[in-house]
Amino acid sequence: MNTILEVAQLKKSFGGLHVLRDINFDLNENEIIGLIGPNGCGKSTTFNILAGNLDADNGSIKLYNQELIDLPPYQRNLLGLSRTYQNTRLWRNLTVIENLMVTPKNQIGARSLPSLFKRKAFRKQEKDLLDKAYSTLEFLEITHMANNLTSELSGGQSKLVDLARVLMSDPKVLMLDEPVAGVAPPLAEKIFQKVREMREQLNISVIIIEHNMDFILRKGVDRIFVMAAGVVIAKGRPDEIKEMSSVIEAYLGE
Amino acid sequence: MVKSDILGKLKSIFTNEKNKQNKIFSYRRFTFNIFLIVLILILVIQIYFKINKLDGILTIDIMSVLLLTLLYSAIFLSLALGLNLTYKILGFANFSHAEFLTIGGYFAIFLQLTPWFTKSIDGAPEGILREHLLIYAMIIGFFGTGLIAVIIDYLVYRPLRKRDAKPDTMMIASLGVALVIRGLLYVRFTGANSYFVPPEGEIIEVHELKTIKIRIFLGSKFFDSELVKTGSGCVGTILCTFNFKDLFWFLIKIIILTTILLFIFINYTKTGKAMRAVADNVDLAASSGINVERIRILTWFIGGGIAGMAGVVWSALFKISPITGSIYLLAAFAVIVLGSIGSLEGGVIASLIIGFARALSYPILAGLGNPLNRNAMSSYVDVIPFAILILILLFYSDGIGERIKQRKIELARIELRNAELGIVTHKSFIKRFFNQFFMELQFGIIKFIAIITFLSKYIINPLKQVKTKFIIMLSPLTNIITLSIQNIKNIIYKLRKTISRKFGKYSLNNFQPFSSRYPMGLRDESFQNNLFILFIIFILILILNLPASNEDNRRMIFLLGFFITWIIFAILALSLNFHTGITGLVNFGVVFFAGIGAITTSLYSFHNKNIFIGINISPFIGIILGTILAFVIGYLLAYPTIKLRSDYFAIVTISISEILRIMLNVEPFLRTRRAGDTTTSPGISEYSLPLNDWWMKAYPKEEIPYNAILFIIAIILFAIVFLLSQLFLNSPYGRILKSIREDEEVTETYGYNVFKYKAIALAIGGAMAALAGGIWAWYLTNVFPDLLTAATSTFLVWAAFVMGGKGNNKGMIVGSGIIILTDYTFRFLTNLRTTGESNWFIGMVDWIFRLIVVDIGGNLFGKATISETLSDDVHVNLIYLQVALVGLMIIIGMIRFEKGFIPEKSYRPRQSSNIVKQEMYTKAMDDLREREGIDA
Q: Can you give the pTM of this predicted structure?
């Protein structure tokens, strides 16, 4: 198993508020890891730093041995890093299909000059991307909403579209921030199943922030990192984590 | 340490990196930086003067500067208070706020001309302002303007809120409101200045103000200065006149008192707390039992009232004209952005900073003007608030008040940590002492207010009982009124139901050919196309039937002029659509880029070489140069503005277009010297027009007017711009721009360099507008500063953009057509009036006006209100009626057609290469139709 993502000694503080003190974890190829911990321990901040929305005070992030600190967010994505948000952020006045067509990388016609002069090329590419988009929607079973504006979708459908959109971007490392928050159990089950299918069929590695212990401890992840108060207090396989007293203490208090 | 700090800051401005240093804001460092910048400026001026062997004297009158600082700060603060309130609590930038000041001023003038008001108070003759009259006028001005603000909210902003309108929509609607108010004020009071004169026979006291003048010598003597103590201190003519001294300090005291009262109200009363709650989170406030609508009404009342009250005092001091308030509007925005929106403390500091800068810059600019050969240099004084704003936004992209707030939070956090760790520094000890003191003070104030509230119960409770008794007494009457209103509403409802039942089958929605062929209604592409063609035909029919002249040639000139103007505005609207409709950059400075195009085109095609920079090359090269220049400037504009939020960005765009307008007035290379003259006048003229020589040779007597060939050139350019816009929009590039509009942070995390995209979008849109500017320069044959006035140019383009359909290029053609048609119609009507002919429309409008103003108003308020403000021949100024009408169109456009006539086309791709996928697509469309039914 080779390590594709290494996060070492991440520090972040907002003035006197030290959110991250010393975060270390790693991700292997084709693995699903879970990042869990009580509220306020810094999970979303870690994601923001990984994605580039925030700057870390200290530490290093290596993706395929390339240092990510100092790279702007768009370059991190071009290396294969994609994320979703806890509160789904879709592009609201665009249709579902349009949302999916923005994210694929290296599109012809994505810059101003090619959009004028390479029209034949991108028309062909458009057809291929449309196929892929419909297949993705089919994979997530929401084809009937393809032509709606995303502002017209329900919460659960938005989450599925978000997942579809992130899949279209050919990610190598996928960061899911609470992918089933506020979603009814049957749909949550379906989403988790799709995540597992993604790992098998598409060879993606996944980091999940989740509070749903059922998935984390029983069915889904290969390894878990437990965070509390800005440090990783435990790591290991689910069966190991379940027993650790430090984890139980962190979640339930003394 | 200081140097690296500044270098680091400079670097972070001009790259798109986030500012890596999250240092705490320090007052010391801030004032030091300002000091440093001023010092550098002085040094640069001195060196420049030395090198060019120029000579100059700056005379700074300390007392004058101090008093003017107070004056400007007071005015800015009075506007900033209300503006902050509405911005924070209602959530949008109100561009009509300054009109409240003007309204207040006219309240004062109007009341003073009303005999029963002046007589009932003290019996002084009309038109004379006495101190106690001023107090009453202020009270009436406060309540009256507050009431007007509430009514406007009910008519305009509440319907928008009910439709969940975005803040940008409300901001644009407020633009419309400002135009309506200003237009109506012009119509009623004309553009003349109104002011108060001292009563006959009263001696004007000249006040001796002791002052110190500093004379700074530039150039010849390096940094020499001289202090001159003078006794005479007529600080400008106004400060010497009747009663001014008392009135002046009265204004200052009123503003200070208002600020303190407002501060106490917001921070220490229950209602104030409710207002802060609504400002923070509306839904949470509503579910906590706060009546949110009532808070909003109160906000409008207070905000408008304060501005109105300030307007009353202003009219006592200075003159009032319909544009008085609007002159200070943009500066007021600069103030609240500088102080951070919503922060009262920040607003106070910012008012003082900008007031001081404005007061100080006048003598400095006046002194610099002569040696630098710019007669009108002091016009730049209006630019100072904008320049300061832009400078500060460069370093503090959220404004100063935000930084101060963060500083307090950070210091509190550090305090907490120090307390946890047991660290006590002498600073923290002193701080704790003072904190204790202030907490006690706060508690003291709260106790004080509690006691007053308790005691006032003895007054308020009996009053409440009286009020209840009164209400009970009146209840039969109120019942009748409520019942009759309900009855009327019922009747109207039943009427509408009957009409829709009887005639409903003819409504557009149920019209069968439409509904079956265009099941998606307005969102269907082919329906939009047909609608577009219909609109164009409609506009063409209207314009071709507008009675111009019957002479063929003049009619052709008229029509050609119309079409050329339509093309110019269509291109401007396309540019605005590219910036705002597609990419989401709210650009209120369309006219800036157009101005660059106009100026460059005209400057580079002079045929007489009497000007500093004009070169005689082909006008075609000129326009190409102008387009390229606008492209580059648009791109560069992205650098300092990337971190700004959309409304701050909008204000910066207004600022730069104002700066360009004033530059056109002042800079010598932008003025024309006519042959034989020794002076220059603003504006560029006498430049060559494209293909003019060739045309004049072919048609020396202008059998076919020159504008015909200009029309052909224009329409070719328009076709190019339209084609480009469509190609950009319907491509992956356009999709990415739209995603940036919706949520740019997400777009960035999907692999797109958002900064680059925005910069290129600014550049492309700017180039388009510059092209329009070039055509404009050719059409008008003169480039005058007034061309760049936002009120006439940018707002017209915005009206076209809004009505036509944000995001839709064809909509831009329709919207600009409508706006230009209205413009031409009114201009034609005004022409009729000057030639003495009449017209049923003019007659009707005049009649209505006379009825309201003279017959009703004159009788209610006295003859003097008519004779002093209007000419003897009471008629309606149609030009300004048009301004009001444009404003009304913007408002109605925002309320009724938020999406515009031709809404944005959604991406619903028809084809797919695979039969299976095609079936999926068809099924998706069927599902959509089934679910949506026949919809609009």
A: 0.83
